[in-house]
Specification:
This protein is an alpha+beta fold and 606 residues long. The chain has four domains: 148 residues, Tetratricopeptide repeat domain (Serine Threonine Protein Phosphatase 5, Tetratricopeptide repeat); 123 residues, SET domain (Beta-clip-like), CATH 2.170.270; 155 residues, no CATH class; 80 residues, no CATH class. It has 24 helices and twelve strands. Strands 1-2-12-9 form a four-stranded mixed β-sheet, with no helix packed on it. A three-stranded antiparallel β-sheet has the order 3-11-10, with no helix packed on it. It has a three-stranded antiparallel β-sheet with strand order 4-8-7. Strand 7 and strand 8 form a beta hairpin.
Amino acid sequence: MSDLNCVKIREKFWKVLEAEENNESLGVSELCASIANNSQIKDIIKNIAKSIENENYKIKDKTLAEKRKDVGNRRVKDCKFGAALMEYNIAMSVVPTEDKTLMTSILGNRALVLNKVKLPKNAIDDCNLCLELGYPKQNQYKIYQRLATAYEYCQKYGEALNTLKQLDLSLQDADVDEETVKRLRNDLKTKEVQLKKKLDIVSQNDLSLIDPKTKNLSLSEINPEYPCLSNKMAVTEMAGKGRGLVATQPCEAGELITVEESMCTVLYIVKMRTNCWNCCGELVTWFPCPGCPAIFCSKACMEVGHSRYECVLVTKNIFNIKDAIEGQHATNLHLAFRLISGQSKEFHKDGHFNGNDEYLRMSTLLDHSNVINFKDKVDHMSKSLVIFTMLYLSGYLDGLDEMCTFLPLCSRYLGIIKANSHALFQLTDVEDGYVSKYGMVGLGIFPQTAATFNHSCDPNTFTVNKGKVQYVMTNRRIEKGDELTQVYSGHFGQSSKARRQEILHNRYNFICDCVACRENYPESKDMAEIAKTFKGTPTESYLSPRSDEEKKALDLENERLGKELEKYLIRGDINEALNVSKQRLELAQTNLKPPHILLRKEEAGL
């Protein structure tokens, strides 16, 4: 198997471009025109295409699927349900799509395990897909049993009762003796009585049994110019910064100000075997693409799928990258590829994008590729050539003569992505008990958000990702006229000033002058060494003088609120937990000057 992935392809182009005359005055458009007529570059692309012409993963393997299913069955008998789930997931990823008998057998067994590990929503998906694909009639009663159990676990008692009716009908075809049928029908009647009682209780007086105590995040008032923004915000021109976001009304800490779904999202390369290729959520159950090794978390995400062009690249091993840093660079290339290949060639040739609002907004975003030095331009152009090569290898482009049109497009989209894309994160751990730690799972383009927020190393907003949707909330009280900021790269609590300045200059072409940089705020670990409590805080770090007794009282109140927070989180009462978290944040913000570890801790906790 060839080891040609997108990183190694880039290296081939780099060597050729690096040997070109070092001319700082050449702009990206001139470089694109020159490269499009470079026969050596075209020969490299032809050789790459030839070397991987017969390169394909062995995507589906019936023998392996049967083997992993059998291992899963043994794990179930040993009551090792977590291990069984993994075996069934692997079996699902390699079972041939056309083998419905084997696929439904795996799905049915996985549904049983999912109920055992209390993942009923996933079990419902598997059961319904089993029935849809044609589970053997004589065994369908087993699927209806599992489906009814899953609905009951989800407290969907009406659906569970309807499923019991289907179970009763399926017993007519069941491949079991009369005595077993009689026993099953008796069990069914008993369960029906239990479910009706639960349904009556819910219907009469306690909707909280079926409604989780969380509230949907949505904007109460929408900005007419930027529909993803709160109407309490206005986009305006700011001296030396370009566009910026300013509050037109006061906002409290924890207030939602932006909700936007990414116009295009890709997984971080190293997450391609652990997260869904559509929503980026962590995988519990695997639903594989019929044409390549891509995996989805549900039937719904699988049906959204991805383009046939992307399937070709996956089967050619183009994304087979292990190194984390190289994986981040390759993720940018993948996002550009998906932005282009997700639309027709005519769509991109039309400068108006057929009126597509998201692409029109994206086209107005800043691209710094023309103001970088020659070495960085070589890097930029070698990556742009990789994107073009990916489009060519996938069959999206018909020939190398299209380079004149599509190489500038690849360069432009890559420039926009480098300056404006947002990482998607999942909360993974807590570091030293002070600062929440997030792990990057993907990359997305949010054209409205990217067009409005400026950077600060001590931002007054924070971002929460739910799948492909990005929620931006305030982490402190915002007064009318205040600018709303996000962190582009490197919060002061997590990196040194020198490191932040270097990254911001290289990636976004500016030197940060926020208060955290001007006053050289310490990192979280250093703040924690200065003080971890109100009592241990030096006098000069208070907004106004506090006596020892007052400091002690503040610590007691903070401790009380911490216990309240833990209680509500255990209950799953997120609304009350959020209210208490805001109180702890207010306690810190009304007493302490930034920077302080308690301020960082409560902002992260919120």
